[in-house]
Amino acid sequence: MFYFTYNWRELHWQIPHKQEKRVRQASKARVANAAKKSQFRTSIKNVLKSISDKNAEQSKKDFITAVSCIDKLAMKGIIHKNKAARHKARLNSKIKSL
């Protein structure tokens, strides 16, 4: 995924200083949030892979790390709290069915 970046020297006369700062902050936050969402998806994939391998012990360990990651994202507002609860509930039900 590509993000449009600005050349601040060229746009300085167009954007007031506070707005320029907000754009810089938003672009940094966008990159950080994308990395956190990627880690979120990877942790879920790890749990699903260990479930498909019928490895109950590893799936429980992966589930604990996934729940930690999901809760952090929900707490910071990167994902909605209901989405976090839905993911945790579905993963937990799959682990219980092993």
Give the arrangement of secondary structure elements:
Elements: H1 8-11, H2 17-52, H3 56-76, H4 81-96
Structure, explained:
The chain has 98 residues and is mainly α. Helices cover 79% and strands 0% of the residues. It has four helices and no strands. It has helices at 8-11, 17-52, 56-76, 81-96. The mean pLDDT is 90.
Q: What can be said about this structure in brief?
A:
The chain has 98 residues and is mainly alpha-helical. The radius of gyration is 19 Å and the shape is elongated. α2 packs antiparallel against α3, α2 runs parallel beside α4 and α3 runs antiparallel to α4.
* Count of strand segments: 0
% residues in beta strands: under 5%
Count every helix, treating DSSP H or I runs of 4 or more residues as helices: 4
Given as residue ranges, the uncertain stretches (5+ residues, pLDDT < 50) are: none
What is the residue-mean pLDDT, rounded to a whole number? 90
Distance between the termini: 36 Å
Main β sheet profile: none
Oligomeric organization of the protein chains: single chain
Secondary-structure-derived class: mainly alpha
The helix-strand sequence is: HHHH
Query: What would you report as the Rg, rounded to the nearest angstrom?
Result: 19 Å
Helix content: over 70%
Rough shape? elongated
Essential attributes:
98 residues, mainly alpha, 4 helices
